[in-house]
Amino acid sequence: MPVLRSREIPPVPPKPPKARVKVDPPATPTQGREQPATRLSSPHSLTPSPKTAGSVSGSAPSSLRRSLRLSSKGSSNAGDQVGLPEVEKCIGSLNGDVSKKRKLSVDVDGGFESGGSRVLSLRSGEKVTKRSPLGDGDVNGGGGGDEVVESNTKGKSIAESEYIEKSESNNENRKRRFSSEEKGKGKLVVETDLESKDETLVNGSVPDVEVPAEEVKSPDEKPSKRSNRGTNGGRMERFRDTARRNASRFAYFNTQEEEKEEEDNNNLSMEVEREIPSVEEQIEEKVAEDWPGPFSTAMKIIRDRAANLNVRQGSSSSGQVPSVKIKWVPQKGKGKDGSKRLPPSLLDLSLRVLVDNADAIASLDHVPDALRHKLCQMLCDSRRMDSNLLDLLLSGSPTEIRLKECSWLTEDQFIECFEKCDTSNLTVLQLDYCGQSLADYNIPSTLARSPISLPALTTLSLTGAYRLSDAGLSVLVSSAPALRSVNLSQCSFLTHGAIEILASSLASVLLELFVDDCQSIDAMLMLPSLKRLEHLEVLSVAGLESVTDKFIKEFIFARGDGIKELNLSGCGKLTDSSLKIIAEICSILRALDIGNVPKLTDNSFGHLASGCRSLESLKLCRNAFSDDAIAAFLEMSGEVLKELALNNVGKVGHNTALSLARRSRNLVSLDLSWCRNLTDEAMGLIVDSCLSLRVLKLFGCTQITDVFLCGHSNAKVEIIGLKLSPLLEHMKSPVESPLHRTRQRVCHEKKHVLRQTDRRHSFVSYNLPVKVYRESTSNVPKKGMEIFITDVFTTDQKNEPQWPRLCLMLHATALSSSVPRALLNSRRY
Amino acid sequence: MKKEDTVKLISSEGMEFVIDKEAAMVSQTIRNMLTSPGGFAEAEHGVVTFPEINAVILEKICQYFYWSLQYSRGKETEFHIEPELTLELMMAANYLHT
C-alpha cells in the first residue's frame, strides 16, 4: 500500500486557499483599486490588505492575494477608478488575452475551472459569469456564462496583441518572477511557464476567441499604468498577473508546499533557474508550432465538434460544458440484473471450501503452481495463512512461492520455515510485506545459505522489507545471480547503494526493477547505476519525490529505447517535458502510469500520441487532462490500447466516450471511477461498442443508474464498483501482474516448460505452446498430438481459454508422472 | 436418455458414468473434446477417459454438472463439497476447466 503522502492533491478545488486569496472590500481610495479583486472574494477584514500591499515576499497564499491585488491594481490603474464593470473587464482582458469560450478554457487550463467558477458564483454577482474566478481569468472572457458576444476579429486582434505582449513579457516574467518569488514560489514560476505556454498555444490554435469589447482599452492603458509605477513596477504588474493566473490554479498546491518551500527556498530557486532554459526552449517550440500535426488536428476536430454544438445551441449560460450528443438507447427487456447469474465454477467452490478448511490440508504435493497461488491469495486475503501452510508450500523443492502478504509471518517462523527449505529450484519468490520477518541478519541463514542457494531465482519480490539494508540486499543478490525481476518497493532502508549492488552483479540480466516508495533512494544518485542496467525493460519509481525531469531526461536518453513499462505515478515534479522525451525515445513503450502527476497538461497527450505508438496500458489518476485531449489521443492511439485508467480525471466527458466507442476495439480493462461527467448514455455507448471490454470500474460514479446497468448489451463485461461486489477478487492477482508477463516471456526465451497460463495474453503469438508440448511429451504418438494441437489453435478463436487448458493439462500430468502418457495415448484414431 | 444425448465418462478405476451431453458440456475441456473438428475418438464414440481422476471425484464432478445446469435455470441452491475431497476436486476441476 502506498504511503499516504501529504502532498496528495484533493480533487475538489478547496475553498480555503481561495479564501485566503480574498481581498478586502475597498474602503479607502487606495483600496479602491482592489475592488475588482474583491469581486472575486467575499469581503474580509481590512487587516490583511496593508500587509500584502507592497511586499513581494511572503507565503504563497499571501502572495496570491498580493498578486491578485496588484494585478487588479494594475488594471484599475488602467481605468483609474473607472466603474467596477469596466475594471473587471480590464482584468479580464489582462488575464484573458486567452479569453475564449469556456469549453476551450477547460481544455487548456486543466485547473478546476468548474470548481472555481462555482466558487466564484457564490461570492460575486453576475459579473462573475464573465470571468473566471481567481485569475484563471485568462481563460475566460466568457467565464461560466461564456456568452459575451464579441466579434471574433476583435477578440483575435486583442488576443494577438496580448499574445505578443505576453511572449515578450514571458521572458521577463520568468526572470522577474524568480527574483520576486525566490523566497518561496519556485514552483509557481514553473507553473507560470506552463500556463503561459498554454496561453500561447491556445492563442495560436483557437480560432474563435471571445473577448469583451471593452478590453480593447486595456493594452493601451497598461503601459501608461506601468510607467506610473516605474519600470520595475510595471513589469511586476504583468508578472503578478500571470502569477495570479497561475497561482490560483495551483493555490491548493502551494498551501501544502508552503512550509516545504520556505525551508529549501534556495534549492528550489536554483532548481527552477536551471529548469528555466528547458522550459524556455519548450515555450519557444510551442510558440512556433502546436502539438505535432495529427494530434492537433484531432484536437481541433474535437473542439470544433463541440464548438459547433455550442454555436448551434446558441447562448446557454448554464455554466455547464455543452456536451456532444450521445446516441445510445438502452436495450429494453433485459430482465433483472442484466444477465443471468452464472453458476460459480467448481474450481471456485472447491477453493473456497479449501480455504475454510485450510488447517486440514495435509499436503500440497502435485498441486500445480497456478492453483497454489490462487490458494495462497485467498488465504492471505482472508488472513488464514499461517506457518503450517507455509511449510506445506515449502515442502519438497518448490518452484514458486507467492505470498502477497506476509505480515503475519514472525521472524522466528520465517527462520524456521526457510532454514530447511530447498531453494534450488525456486524461480519465483514473492514475500510481500515481509518487513517483520526479513532482516539483514537472518538472510544468510535462510535464503542465502550458500552462494548458490538461489540459482534459478528469476523473480524476487520483497516489498515492505523495511529492515533490509543495502548490505543485506547484497548478500541476497550474490546468491541469486539469475535475477531478472526485482521488486523492492517500500523498502525504506535502501539507498542508492542498493541499486549499485544490483547494477554490479545483475547489469546484464536485470529486466525489471521496482523501487516504488523507497524514500531513502535519491533518484539522481541512483541514476548512474540505473544506466548500467543494460536490458532494463520495466522501471517503476512511483512515489519517489526525487524523480525530476532531469532524471527522466538522462535516464531515457541512456536506456529509454529498451523501456517497455514505466511507472511514474506520484512523481509530482514531472512536467510535460518528461513526457516529451519519453514519447520521443521510448518507442516500444507498452505501459505507462502517470497517475497523480498534477503538472502534466494536455501537451503530454500530444507527445504521447505522436510518440508511443504501441502503448497498450495507460493509467491516469487525478490528472488535470481535458476531455478533448484524451479524446484526441484515443482517436489516434486507441486501437492498440488494452487497458485504460481514467481514475478521477474529472474532465472526462462525452468526447472521450465517443472516441472510446469508435476506436477502442481492443480495450479489455477500463477504469472510469469518479468520472462524474459521464452519463448513462455515454457509458452505454462505451460498453456496447468496446466489444473486448471485460472489466469496467466505476467507483464513485453515483450518476450511473440502472438505465445503464440493465440496458447495456455487453454480456461479458464485468462492472465493478457500483454495487457491493467482492472487491478483492478484482484486484490484480500475481498471475496477471507485469511481473508475470515478463516471466512468461523469459520462459519463452529459455524454453522452459510453461508453468502458468495467463488467459488474457494470447500465447499464440509466442508460439510457446507448440515448443513446450513437443519437448515434454516426446514419446507420445506425434500424429495424434499434433492434430490435437492444431485443433486447439483453430478453435482458439471460438473458445479462448482452450489453449491454457491444454497447457495446464500437460503440466498437471507432468507432475503426476503416471498420467501423461496414458492420457495422451487416448487420443488415438 | 437416448444414446445420442449422452456421453460416458470413465474414471481411473474403470467406473463409467453416463451423463447427458448438455451436462458434460459444462466442462470446457469436455466440450472441446466433443465438439472440436478433427475426428477425435471422443467425439465419435461419446466416451471420455480420465485416467487421473478417481471415481469418487468423478461422481462429484457429474453432480456438479447437473447442479450447474439447475443453477443457470434459476434454481439456486448450495453445492456442498466434503472437505476431504476438496483438494483433488480442485485439481480435477482445474483440469476440466469447470
TrEMBL record, chain A:
Entry-linked SUPFAM superfamilies: RNI-like
Q: Where is the composition biased (Polar residues)?
A: 29-52
Cross-referenced Pfam families: DUF7885, LRR_6
Q: Where is the F-box/LRR-repeat protein 15-like leucin rich repeat domain?
A: 468-626
Task: Report the SMART domains cross-referenced here.
Answer: LRR_CC (SM00367)
Q: Where is the composition biased (Basic and acidic residues)?
A: 157-200, 214-224, 235-244
Spell out the Acidic residues composition-biased ranges. Answer: 256-265
Region ranges (Disordered): 1-268
Q: Where is the composition biased (Low complexity)?
A: 53-78
State the name under which the record lists this protein. Answer: F-box/LRR-repeat protein 15-like leucin rich repeat domain-containing protein
Organism equals: Hibiscus sabdariffa
From TrEMBL, chain B:
**Pathway linked to the protein:** Protein modification; protein ubiquitination
What sequence ranges are listed for the domain SKP1 component POZ? 6-66
UniProt KW Nucleus keyword? yes
Tell me the keywords, alphabetical order.
Answer: Nucleus
Stored Pfam families: Skp1_POZ
Q: What is its main location?
A: nucleus
Location of the protein in the cell: Nucleus
Q: Which domain of life, per UniProt? A: Eukaryota
* SMART domains xref list: Skp1
The record, for SUPFAM superfamilies, names: POZ domain (SSF54695)
* Sequence similarity: Belongs to the SKP1 family.
Record protein name field: Elongin-C
